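Quiz preparation item.
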Protein backbone atom coordinates (compact mmCIF):
# COMPACT_ATOMS: atom_id res chain seq x y z
CA UNK A 1 0.00 0.00 0.00
CA UNK A 2 1.24 3.47 -0.74
CA UNK A 3 0.19 7.10 -0.66
CA UNK A 4 1.40 9.54 -3.26
CA UNK A 5 2.26 12.95 -1.85
CA UNK A 6 -0.93 14.95 -2.07
CA UNK A 7 -0.98 18.55 -3.21
CA UNK A 8 -1.33 20.89 -0.24
CA UNK A 9 -4.92 21.78 0.73
CA UNK A 10 -5.26 25.03 -1.22
CA UNK A 11 -3.80 23.47 -4.35
CA UNK A 12 -6.05 20.45 -4.55
CA UNK A 13 -8.11 20.34 -7.73
CA UNK A 14 -11.17 19.16 -5.82
CA UNK A 15 -11.05 22.10 -3.41
CA UNK A 16 -12.45 25.37 -4.68
CA UNK A 17 -10.31 28.27 -3.61
CA UNK A 18 -12.47 30.72 -1.70
CA UNK A 19 -12.89 34.32 -2.76
CA UNK A 20 -10.94 36.10 -0.09
CA UNK A 21 -12.31 39.35 1.25
CA UNK A 22 -8.84 40.84 1.70
CA UNK A 23 -5.43 40.34 0.01
CA UNK A 24 -3.88 39.60 3.44
CA UNK A 25 -6.13 36.55 3.68
CA UNK A 26 -4.97 35.24 0.31
CA UNK A 27 -1.39 35.80 1.45
CA UNK A 28 -1.98 33.91 4.70
CA UNK A 29 -3.62 31.02 2.79
CA UNK A 30 -0.55 30.84 0.54
CA UNK A 31 1.69 30.84 3.63
CA UNK A 32 -0.29 27.92 5.12
CA UNK A 33 -0.18 26.05 1.83
CA UNK A 34 3.57 26.42 1.63
CA UNK A 35 3.93 24.70 5.02
CA UNK A 36 1.14 22.23 4.14
CA UNK A 37 -0.98 23.29 7.10
CA UNK A 38 -4.65 22.44 6.51
CA UNK A 39 -7.07 25.40 6.64
CA UNK A 40 -10.68 26.39 6.15
CA UNK A 41 -11.78 29.90 5.30
CA UNK A 42 -14.49 31.47 7.47
CA UNK A 43 -16.19 28.13 8.21
CA UNK A 44 -18.18 29.29 11.23
CA UNK A 45 -19.87 32.36 12.66
CA UNK A 46 -20.18 32.82 16.41
CA UNK A 47 -23.18 34.87 17.67
CA UNK A 48 -21.90 37.45 20.16
CA UNK A 49 -24.99 39.51 21.07
CA UNK A 50 -28.71 38.97 20.94
CA UNK A 51 -31.69 41.31 21.14
CA UNK A 52 -35.26 40.07 21.43
CA UNK A 53 -34.04 36.58 20.59
CA UNK A 54 -32.31 37.77 17.40
CA UNK A 55 -28.58 37.76 16.80
CA UNK A 56 -27.44 41.37 16.42
CA UNK A 57 -23.71 40.81 16.44
CA UNK A 58 -21.64 37.89 15.33
CA UNK A 59 -18.00 37.13 14.68
CA UNK A 60 -16.63 35.06 11.80
CA UNK A 61 -12.92 34.37 12.30
CA UNK A 62 -10.98 34.41 9.03
CA UNK A 63 -9.48 30.92 9.22
CA UNK A 64 -9.87 27.61 11.01
CA UNK A 65 -6.82 25.31 11.23
CA UNK A 66 -8.27 21.84 11.95
CA UNK A 67 -4.97 20.13 12.80
CA UNK A 68 -4.66 22.38 15.85
CA UNK A 69 -8.37 23.11 16.35
CA UNK A 70 -7.42 26.77 16.12
CA UNK A 71 -9.27 29.81 14.74
CA UNK A 72 -7.19 32.67 13.36
CA UNK A 73 -8.28 36.24 12.92
CA UNK A 74 -5.86 38.34 10.90
CA UNK A 75 -5.28 41.93 11.83
CA UNK A 76 -3.29 44.90 10.67
CA UNK A 77 -1.54 47.32 13.01
CA UNK A 78 -4.29 49.93 12.48
CA UNK A 79 -5.29 50.84 16.02
CA UNK A 80 -9.05 51.26 15.56
CA UNK A 81 -9.27 47.86 13.88
CA UNK A 82 -7.10 46.14 16.48
CA UNK A 83 -9.19 47.49 19.37
CA UNK A 84 -12.44 46.33 17.75
CA UNK A 85 -11.03 42.89 17.00
CA UNK A 86 -9.61 42.51 20.50
CA UNK A 87 -13.05 43.25 21.93
CA UNK A 88 -14.68 40.62 19.69
CA UNK A 89 -12.07 38.02 20.53
CA UNK A 90 -12.51 38.70 24.25
CA UNK A 91 -16.29 38.34 23.97
CA UNK A 92 -15.94 35.16 21.94
CA UNK A 93 -13.65 33.66 24.59
CA UNK A 94 -16.17 34.54 27.35
CA UNK A 95 -19.10 32.98 25.51
CA UNK A 96 -17.25 30.00 23.98
CA UNK A 97 -14.43 29.13 26.41
CA UNK A 98 -13.52 25.94 24.57
CA UNK A 99 -12.83 27.73 21.30
CA UNK A 100 -9.16 28.43 20.61
CA UNK A 101 -8.56 31.65 18.74
CA UNK A 102 -5.57 33.87 18.06
CA UNK A 103 -5.40 37.37 16.68
CA UNK A 104 -2.51 37.37 14.28
CA UNK A 105 -0.44 40.23 12.92
CA UNK A 106 1.28 39.78 9.60
CA UNK A 107 4.73 40.02 11.22
CA UNK A 108 3.78 37.11 13.50
CA UNK A 109 2.78 34.59 10.83
CA UNK A 110 5.88 32.53 11.51
CA UNK A 111 5.09 32.29 15.21
CA UNK A 112 2.23 30.00 14.37
CA UNK A 113 4.59 27.47 12.83
CA UNK A 114 5.86 26.12 16.15
CA UNK A 115 2.33 24.94 16.96
CA UNK A 116 2.49 22.77 13.87
CA UNK A 117 5.83 21.16 14.69
CA UNK A 118 7.98 23.52 12.66
CA UNK A 119 9.85 24.93 15.67
CA UNK A 120 13.24 23.55 14.84
CA UNK A 121 13.55 25.43 11.56
CA UNK A 122 15.20 28.13 13.62
CA UNK A 123 17.33 25.66 15.54
CA UNK A 124 18.89 24.32 12.36
CA UNK A 125 19.43 27.92 11.27
CA UNK A 126 17.55 27.28 8.07
CA UNK A 127 15.68 30.33 6.92
CA UNK A 128 12.18 29.73 5.56
CA UNK A 129 13.23 31.37 2.29
CA UNK A 130 15.88 28.65 1.84
CA UNK A 131 13.20 26.00 1.53
CA UNK A 132 12.18 25.40 -2.05
CA UNK A 133 9.18 23.28 -1.19
CA UNK A 134 7.79 21.55 1.87
CA UNK A 135 6.94 18.07 0.64
CA UNK A 136 5.50 16.59 3.82
CA UNK A 137 4.47 18.44 6.97
CA UNK A 138 5.01 17.02 10.47
CA UNK A 139 1.26 16.34 10.71
CA UNK A 140 1.18 14.47 7.39
CA UNK A 141 4.17 12.34 8.39
CA UNK A 142 2.70 11.50 11.79
CA UNK A 143 -0.69 10.57 10.30
CA UNK A 144 0.89 8.23 7.77
CA UNK A 145 3.25 6.65 10.31
CA UNK A 146 0.24 5.92 12.54
CA UNK A 147 -1.55 4.26 9.59
CA UNK A 148 1.51 2.16 8.76
CA UNK A 149 1.77 1.12 12.42
CA UNK A 150 -1.85 0.02 12.42
CA UNK A 151 -1.49 -1.94 9.22
CA UNK A 152 1.72 -3.65 10.34
CA UNK A 153 0.16 -4.50 13.73
CA UNK A 154 -2.80 -6.10 11.96
CA UNK A 155 -0.61 -8.01 9.49
CA UNK A 156 1.56 -9.42 12.30
CA UNK A 157 -1.35 -10.27 14.60
CA UNK A 158 -0.31 -13.02 17.03
CA UNK A 159 3.38 -12.64 16.09
CA UNK A 160 6.37 -10.76 17.40
CA UNK A 161 8.86 -9.15 15.05
CA UNK A 162 12.32 -7.68 14.71
CA UNK A 163 12.53 -4.18 13.26
CA UNK A 164 15.82 -3.67 11.46
CA UNK A 165 16.72 -0.05 10.78
CA UNK A 166 19.42 1.13 8.42
CA UNK A 167 21.41 3.90 10.10
CA UNK A 168 21.32 6.82 10.24
CA UNK A 169 18.47 8.17 8.16
CA UNK A 170 16.09 5.83 9.90
CA UNK A 171 16.49 7.42 13.35
CA UNK A 172 13.18 9.27 13.64
CA UNK A 173 11.02 7.10 11.40
CA UNK A 174 11.98 3.93 13.24
CA UNK A 175 11.36 5.53 16.64
CA UNK A 176 7.90 6.74 15.59
CA UNK A 177 6.96 3.58 13.70
CA UNK A 178 8.01 1.28 16.54
CA UNK A 179 5.73 3.20 18.91
CA UNK A 180 2.84 2.95 16.44
CA UNK A 181 3.14 -0.86 16.26
CA UNK A 182 1.19 -2.72 18.93
CA UNK A 183 3.01 -6.07 18.61
CA UNK A 184 5.96 -7.23 20.74
CA UNK A 185 9.11 -6.23 18.90
CA UNK A 186 12.87 -6.04 19.10
CA UNK A 187 14.87 -3.28 17.42
CA UNK A 188 18.24 -3.69 15.78
CA UNK A 189 20.38 -1.61 13.44
CA UNK A 190 22.59 -2.04 10.44
CA UNK A 191 25.00 0.50 9.06
CA UNK A 192 26.49 0.42 5.59
CA UNK A 193 29.55 1.87 4.00
CA UNK A 194 29.64 2.64 0.33
CA UNK A 195 32.78 2.91 -1.66
CA UNK A 196 33.12 3.22 -5.42
CA UNK A 197 35.88 0.61 -5.54
CA UNK A 198 34.70 -1.75 -2.82
CA UNK A 199 30.94 -1.32 -3.37
CA UNK A 200 28.41 -1.51 -0.56
CA UNK A 201 29.44 -3.31 2.62
CA UNK A 202 28.18 -3.73 6.16
CA UNK A 203 29.99 -1.35 8.50
CA UNK A 204 27.95 -2.23 11.59
CA UNK A 205 26.15 -5.56 11.68
CA UNK A 206 23.07 -6.62 13.63
CA UNK A 207 23.48 -7.64 17.26
CA UNK A 208 20.58 -10.11 17.09
CA UNK A 209 20.40 -13.49 15.42
CA UNK A 210 17.38 -13.22 13.11
CA UNK A 211 17.13 -16.89 12.13
CA UNK A 212 13.50 -18.00 12.42
CA UNK A 213 12.30 -14.46 13.27
CA UNK A 214 9.81 -12.26 11.45
CA UNK A 215 11.97 -9.39 10.25
CA UNK A 216 10.72 -6.04 9.06
CA UNK A 217 13.47 -4.04 7.40
CA UNK A 218 12.80 -0.33 7.82
CA UNK A 219 14.33 2.12 5.33
CA UNK A 220 14.07 5.87 5.06
CA UNK A 221 14.03 6.15 1.29
CA UNK A 222 14.28 3.83 -1.68
CA UNK A 223 15.78 5.39 -4.75
CA UNK A 224 17.49 3.09 -7.26
CA UNK A 225 16.82 0.14 -4.95
CA UNK A 226 20.50 -0.92 -5.03
CA UNK A 227 21.01 -0.42 -1.29
CA UNK A 228 17.87 -2.30 -0.39
CA UNK A 229 18.66 -5.09 -2.81
CA UNK A 230 22.03 -5.57 -1.10
CA UNK A 231 20.57 -5.61 2.42
CA UNK A 232 17.71 -7.95 1.52
CA UNK A 233 20.13 -10.45 0.01
CA UNK A 234 22.35 -10.33 3.12
CA UNK A 235 19.42 -10.77 5.50
CA UNK A 236 17.79 -13.56 3.48
CA UNK A 237 20.95 -15.65 3.85
CA UNK A 238 20.36 -15.60 7.60
CA UNK A 239 17.10 -17.52 7.18
CA UNK A 240 14.52 -15.34 8.92
CA UNK A 241 10.98 -16.81 9.15
CA UNK A 242 9.88 -13.89 6.97
CA UNK A 243 11.40 -10.70 5.63
CA UNK A 244 9.38 -7.67 4.55
CA UNK A 245 10.40 -4.09 3.81
CA UNK A 246 8.85 -0.85 5.02
CA UNK A 247 10.10 2.38 3.43
CA UNK A 248 8.93 5.82 4.42
CA UNK A 249 9.62 7.31 0.99
CA UNK A 250 9.72 5.75 -2.42
CA UNK A 251 11.18 7.50 -5.45
CA UNK A 252 9.62 4.84 -7.64
CA UNK A 253 10.62 6.45 -10.93
CA UNK A 254 14.32 6.14 -10.05
CA UNK A 255 14.22 2.37 -9.56
CA UNK A 256 17.00 0.38 -11.25
CA UNK A 257 16.49 -2.96 -9.54
CA UNK A 258 13.13 -4.36 -8.50
CA UNK A 259 12.84 -4.60 -4.71
CA UNK A 260 9.85 -5.93 -2.80
CA UNK A 261 8.59 -3.06 -0.64
CA UNK A 262 5.49 -4.22 1.22
CA UNK A 263 4.84 -0.97 3.11
CA UNK A 264 5.46 2.45 1.57
CA UNK A 265 4.75 5.68 3.42
CA UNK A 266 4.74 8.05 0.45
CA UNK A 267 5.63 7.83 -3.20
CA UNK A 268 7.54 11.02 -3.96
CA UNK A 269 8.82 12.71 -7.10
CA UNK A 270 12.45 12.50 -8.13
CA UNK A 271 13.83 15.35 -6.04
CA UNK A 272 16.53 15.35 -3.39
CA UNK A 273 14.85 15.67 -0.01
CA UNK A 274 16.05 16.31 3.54
CA UNK A 275 14.53 16.27 7.01
CA UNK A 276 12.95 13.76 9.39
CA UNK A 277 16.20 11.79 9.45
CA UNK A 278 17.29 12.37 5.86
CA UNK A 279 20.48 14.33 5.48
CA UNK A 280 22.55 16.19 3.04
CA UNK A 281 26.10 15.48 4.21
CA UNK A 282 24.91 14.98 7.80
CA UNK A 283 22.90 18.21 7.95
CA UNK A 284 19.13 18.77 8.23
CA UNK A 285 18.27 15.40 9.78
CA UNK A 286 16.53 17.17 12.67
CA UNK A 287 14.02 19.06 10.55
CA UNK A 288 10.64 17.67 11.66
CA UNK A 289 9.30 17.86 8.10
CA UNK A 290 10.55 16.72 4.69
CA UNK A 291 11.48 19.33 2.13
CA UNK A 292 13.42 20.22 -0.97
CA UNK A 293 16.01 22.91 -0.32
CA UNK A 294 16.99 25.68 -2.68
CA UNK A 295 20.16 25.13 -4.64
CA UNK A 296 21.88 28.05 -2.89
CA UNK A 297 21.75 26.15 0.43
CA UNK A 298 23.90 23.37 -0.95
CA UNK A 299 26.24 25.93 -2.47
CA UNK A 300 26.60 27.66 0.90
CA UNK A 301 27.12 24.34 2.66
CA UNK A 302 29.87 23.45 0.23
CA UNK A 303 32.01 25.91 2.16
CA UNK A 304 30.79 24.84 5.59
CA UNK A 305 32.88 22.70 7.89
CA UNK A 306 30.46 19.76 8.05
CA UNK A 307 30.86 19.31 4.37
CA UNK A 308 33.66 18.41 2.04
CA UNK A 309 33.85 19.35 -1.61
CA UNK A 310 32.95 22.51 -3.42
CA UNK A 311 29.59 24.16 -3.30
CA UNK A 312 29.06 23.62 -6.99
CA UNK A 313 29.66 19.90 -6.77
CA UNK A 314 27.35 19.71 -3.80
CA UNK A 315 24.51 21.49 -5.53
CA UNK A 316 24.92 19.41 -8.64
CA UNK A 317 24.89 16.24 -6.58
CA UNK A 318 21.78 17.27 -4.76
CA UNK A 319 19.97 18.44 -7.84
CA UNK A 320 20.60 15.21 -9.63
CA UNK A 321 19.53 13.12 -6.65
CA UNK A 322 22.39 10.81 -7.32
CA UNK A 323 24.43 11.03 -4.17
CA UNK A 324 24.81 7.31 -3.82
CA UNK A 325 26.15 6.77 -7.30
CA UNK A 326 28.50 9.73 -7.45
CA UNK A 327 30.04 10.17 -4.02
CA UNK A 328 32.94 8.04 -2.97
CA UNK A 329 32.19 8.31 0.73
CA UNK A 330 28.55 9.22 1.23
CA UNK A 331 28.41 9.11 4.98
CA UNK A 332 26.03 6.76 6.61
CA UNK A 333 22.69 6.86 4.86
P1 LIG B 1 19.32 3.71 -3.43
O1 LIG B 1 20.36 2.66 -3.15
O2 LIG B 1 19.58 4.44 -4.71
O3 LIG B 1 17.91 3.18 -3.35
O4 LIG B 1 19.50 4.86 -2.33
C1 LIG B 1 19.08 4.73 -1.04
C2 LIG B 1 19.89 5.59 -0.11
O5 LIG B 1 20.31 6.82 -0.75
C3 LIG B 1 19.03 6.03 1.06
O6 LIG B 1 19.10 5.10 2.11
C4 LIG B 1 19.61 7.39 1.40
O7 LIG B 1 20.69 7.23 2.26
C5 LIG B 1 20.14 7.94 0.09
N1 LIG B 1 19.18 8.86 -0.56
C6 LIG B 1 18.52 8.64 -1.74
N2 LIG B 1 17.73 9.67 -2.05
C7 LIG B 1 17.88 10.58 -1.05
C8 LIG B 1 17.30 11.87 -0.80
O8 LIG B 1 16.47 12.41 -1.55
N3 LIG B 1 17.69 12.49 0.35
C9 LIG B 1 18.59 11.93 1.22
N4 LIG B 1 19.15 10.73 1.02
C10 LIG B 1 18.80 10.05 -0.11
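Solution:
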Amino acid sequence: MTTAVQPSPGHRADVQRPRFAHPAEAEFAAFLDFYRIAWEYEPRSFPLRWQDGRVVEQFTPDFYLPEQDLYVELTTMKQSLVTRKHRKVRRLRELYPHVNIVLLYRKDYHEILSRFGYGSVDITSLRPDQIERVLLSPAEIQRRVAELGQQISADYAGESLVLVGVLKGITFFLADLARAITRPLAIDYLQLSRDLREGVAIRKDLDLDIRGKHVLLVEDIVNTGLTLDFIVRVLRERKPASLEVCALLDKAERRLVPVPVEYVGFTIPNEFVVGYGLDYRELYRNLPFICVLKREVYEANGNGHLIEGTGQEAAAEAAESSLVATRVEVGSG
